[in-house]
Design brief:
Distance between the termini of chain B: 36 Å
Number of strands of chain A: 27
Number of domains of chain B: 1
Shape of chain B: globular
Distance between the termini of chain A: 70 Å
CATH topology of chain B: Ubiquitin-like (UB roll)
Oligomer: heterodimer
CATH architecture of chain B: Roll
CATH architecture of the largest domain in chain A: 2-Layer Sandwich
Shape of chain A: globular
Helix content of chain B: 25-40%
Largest interface: A-B, 48 and 23 residues
Structural class of chain B: alpha+beta
Number of strands of chain B: 5
CATH superfamily of the largest domain in chain A: Aldehyde oxidase/xanthine dehydrogenase, molybdopterin binding domain
CATH superfamily of chain B: Beta-grasp domain
Strand order of the largest sheet of chain B: 2-1-5-3-4
Strand content of chain B: 25-35%
Radius of gyration of chain B: 11 Å
CATH topology of the largest domain in chain A: Aldehyde Oxidoreductase, domain 4
Radius of gyration of chain A: 27 Å
Strand content of chain A: 15-25%
CATH class of the largest domain in chain A: Alpha Beta
Order of helices and strands of chain B: EHEHHEEE
Number of domains of chain A: 3
Helix content of chain A: 25-40%
């Protein structure tokens, strides 16, 4: 209570250094324990039966043969997961996605599950389950799904956000609109107007570690779960609600995580593992195969976006509009709304209008993916921005600088911006040597900007001083990108002790207060705020203990450089007490020393980035090679600069894969044809150059050290930066992502025919 | 009294109004009074509304004070990945 999160300028000792990562040795030696690396005595193997149809009514399920198979200990269907959602439609969607209730809504939708003594028996049991499907018409394309003639996923969905309220059911769940001014007036003021339509295909987050958990429901009602997740407290809450468990009796431990990027903010198989364990009376381990990960978890939206931007010949944008259609899978989500809100946020626009449509399709449920929905919108907008600059004859960086949002700009999503970093990232890009490096034949350069909100959330930490003066920092935000090292640096900084004296651990749900997910780029932002608060509380305790040791008033004790120091003329002869000194006397001065903090970290501050990309396109094969890539982004304050650079590089790498190769390919039957890394090509090290980074530090006024989230924004510009580079290399505007070799060859061939 | 701007769907629930003037010293009081004056906003508040105060978005700090001259903008409660 009473914690002031305001930024105060200071000189840092630990923060800003680059110690080696504390989890690195375990990870490279194989000692680190991921989701599938945990076992419980007597555990069974769980397996899920999935729909082979894109859309089908489940007329009946006969599991008698599977149940009779020797070694099978439990078989469950939706009937074993009664609806306890009490009218909560979001929770009901989660329940229905975890196990289809009446209809299978996509290829890969779970319809039944088994727990058996080994994997072979579990697989045989799946084969023995007889599901009576009535195959229904399906639709997987976002534009097709919007047509009035399209097969309906739900006849109870009527488009929200339109007046008058529709009387006919639709796959369009919602319409949202943002903007200000009058775009029609603005377009009339323009000397040049560019209007184009774009498509992006559905991609997966591509985390290397599949979803995995071990769950145990005990006869006394207590439950345990070990799981790979971005937020074990949220998993606990949702699983407890779906299964009717007491939250406090379900103890969830998060494993190390082999990537999440938003895909592990949703529960998928965890309630199934708990339900199987409850039925079998034994622990159940459930690990998804790669095919299951692709077919039934995680993908982002496929999109169809129209963008129109007008500008005067002096380079001033007069109006901008976009219509954004985002696929949601079978359940609605805020995906087009996020695209509509973020699409023009980089620019200072007098007249702007964006309209978003969320669209249901027979594909897996759309999940959050790193700055969800923003990359696709940025691809469409930044492509037109680039084309407009070329048509007017202005350098694309200068064009963006001229129109960039700044403090006082009314953002395209509504509020007026405070101090923001888009201008500085553009100016840094303009000065960067990359921007003027020579290009060769078949090579092109592109650049693009990106925006993301960043978020905070509920956060709780404990900071315990050991008897030897070393410190254990206990946090509840899962470490997805090196936050344990960063938070140790923050604790060391605040306490004034060496980094090596602090050990940070991620607590299970039974040993710390509730924490929101590690999402929204909040892990280090939020938990560092709580760590500073906890450290300040611990310092208060240590000042009190030092006062007792000296027998002076606590007001005469100051904390400087990791020591309690007596102040005032009367106490000049007292030697400062270190953390170690105070800890050693703790038993006789009041017992254990700790600092605790629970807070809501808000005011994360919006984030901007500018990327530059050079490519070479082989005109014979259509293959694109990334020659050089530079990321410029504001971090507020880079707590551990190497990790910040890693986030920048990782976002760029994922975005490059999305731009060039990654794509869900569906057949006419509505089934996914490439559910594996052989046919769904993510970039590997040999595909990429060293991605250069430049960290800008414009302090966030709402964090004591000025920290901003850095994890997501870096994936927003790459689709557009690569598309602009490829378009410049081939001389044809590329409008369909991914720009895979067949698509580039087709564009080249069409251009040849047209000329 | 503070003036708050509503996003489209919220404005529709408030009888088609884009801006409302509400007596509120902090976010908690704002939501309480909005729900009283415009019952149709109740489900939106229950589901989650973010409050932008001079461009800084607050999702959960209901004790945050609302300066009388601040730009206050209500937005859907968003989440990241």
């Amino acid at each position: 209570m009473g914690f002031d999160p305001s930024y105060a300028a200071r000189t840092f000792t630990s923060v800003g250094t680059r110690p080696i990562r504390p989890d690195g040795v375990d990870k490279v030696t194989g000692r680190a324990r991921y989701g599938a690396d945990f076992n419980m005595p007597g555990q069974l193997v769980g397996r899920i039966l999935r729909s082979p149809h894109a859309h089908a009514r489940i007329s009946g399920i006969d599991a008698s043969k599977a149940k009779a198979l020797k070694g099978v200990k439990a078989v469950i269907t939706a009937a074993d997961l009664p609806d306890l959602t009490n009218g909560n439609s979001d929770l009901h969607d989660i329940l229905d996605n975890c196990m289809a209730r009446k209809r299978a809504l996509y290829d890969g939708h779970a319809v039944a599950a088994v727990a058996a003594i080994d994997a072979r028996t579990a697989r045989r049991a799946l084969d023995l389950i007889e599901v009576d499907y009535e195959v229904l018409a399906h639709v997987t394309d976002v534009d097709e799904a919007m047509k009035s003639s399209a097969p309906l996923l739900h006849d109870t969905v009527f488009t929200g956000g339109v007046e008058p309220k529709p009387t006919k059911a639709s796959n369009i769940t919602n319409r949202t609109q943002y903007g200000h001014g009058d775009v029609e007036v603005g377009f009339k003021e323009a000397d040049v107007v560019i209007e184009r339509s774009f498509k992006t295909e559905q991609t997966h987050q591509g985390y290397i570690e599949p979803h995995a958990c071990v769950a145990s429901v005990n006869p006394d009602g207590t439950c345990e779960m070990w799981v790979c997740t971005q937020g074990h407290f949220v998993y606990r809450q949702q699983c407890a609600e779906l299964l009717g468990l007491d939250v406090s009796k379900l103890r969830v431990t998060s494993s190390e995580i082999g990537g999440g990027f938003g895909g592990k903010t949703h529960i998928w198989a965890e309630p199934i593992a708990l339900a199987l364990s409850r039925r079998a009376g034994r622990p159940v381990k459930l690990v998804m195969s790669r095919e299951e990960v692709f077919r039934a978890s995680g993908p982002t939206s496929a999109t169809s976006i129209d963008v129109k931007i007008g500008a005067r010949s002096d380079g001033t944008i007069t109006a901008a509009s976009a219509t954004l259609r985002y696929s949601c899978g079978p359940y609605t989500g805020p995906w087009a709304m996020l695209g509509a809100m973020t699409s023009f946020a980089c620019y200072d626009l007098k007249n702007v209008k964006t309209v978003g449509y969320e669209v249901l399709v027979n594909r897996p449920k759309t999940a959050a993916y790193r700055a969800p929905s923003a990359p696709m919108a940025a691809f469409a907008v930044e492509s037109v921005i680039d084309e407009l600059a070329q048509k007017i004859g202005i350098n694309p960086v200068e064009f963006r600088i001229k129109n960039a949002a700044k403090e006082g700009t009314k953002s395209s999503y509504g509020p007026v911006f405070g101090p923001i970093g888009i201008g500085p990232t553009l100016e840094a890009a303009q000065r960067h040597p990359h921007m003027n490096a020579p290009l060769g034949k078949n090579q092109g350069r592109g650049m693009a900007c990106g925006f993301w909100f960043n978020f905070g959330g509920q956060t709780c930490t404990d900071l315990n001083i050991g008897a030897d003066g070393t410190v254990t920092l206990t946090v509840g935000t899962v470490d997805v990108g090196g936050s344990r090292a960063s938070l140790s640096l923050v604790a060391a900084e605040e306490l004034g002790i060496p980094y090596a004296q602090v050990q940070t651990v991620v607590a299970d749900t039974g040993t710390l207060g509730y924490n929101d997910m590690t999402d929204g780029s909040r892990g280090t932002f939020s938990s560092s705020m709580a760590t500073i608060s906890a450290a300040r509380n611990a310092i208060g305790v240590m000042r009190d203990r030092a006062a007792r040791m000296w027998d002076i008033h606590v007001d005469d004790v100051a904390w400087e450089d990791g020591h309690a120091k007596a102040v005032g003329g009367k106490h000049d002869n007292l030697s400062p007490l270190s953390v170690k000194d105070i800890a050693a006397a703790a038993a006789k001065t009041g017992g254990p020393i700790a600092g605790h903090s629970e807070l809501v970290a808000d005011g994360a501050g919006v984030s901007f980035a500018t990327h530059i990309c050079d490519v070479e396109v082989d005109p014979d094969t259509g293959a694109t090679k990334i020659l050089r890539y530079t990321v410029v982004q504001d971090a507020g304050k880079a707590v551990h600069p190497a990790y910040v650079e890693g986030q920048y590089q990782g976002g760029a790498a994922q975005g490059i894969g999305w731009a060039l190769n990654e794509e869900y390919v569906y057949g006419e039957d509505g089934c996914l044809q490439n559910p594996g890394f052989l046919d769904y090509r993510v970039p590997v090290c040999s595909d990429l150059p060293m991605i250069d980074t430049q960290i800008l530090e414009i302090p966030n006024p709402n964090h004591p050290y000025g920290v901003r989230g850095v994890g997501e924004t870096s994936i927003v510009p790459p689709l557009a930066a690569v598309a602009n580079a490829v378009s410049n290399a081939v001389g044809i505007r590329m409008t369909h992502i991914p720009m895979s070799p067949p698509r580039i060859l087709a564009a080249l061939e069409a251009d040849r025919r047209a000329h | 009294m503070v003036e708050v701007t509503l996003w489209g769907a919220l404005g529709a629930a408030a009888g088609g109004k884009e801006k409302l003037v509400v007596e509120a010293k902090d976010i908690r009081e704002l939501f309480r009074n909005l729900a009283e004056q415009y019952p149709a906003l109740g489900p939106f508040i229950e589901r989650g509304i973010a409050v932008s105060i001079d461009g800084v978005i607050y999702r959960d700090t209901w004790s945050k004070e609302l300066p009388q001259d601040a730009e206050i903008y209500l937005l859907p409660r968003l989440a990241g990945g």
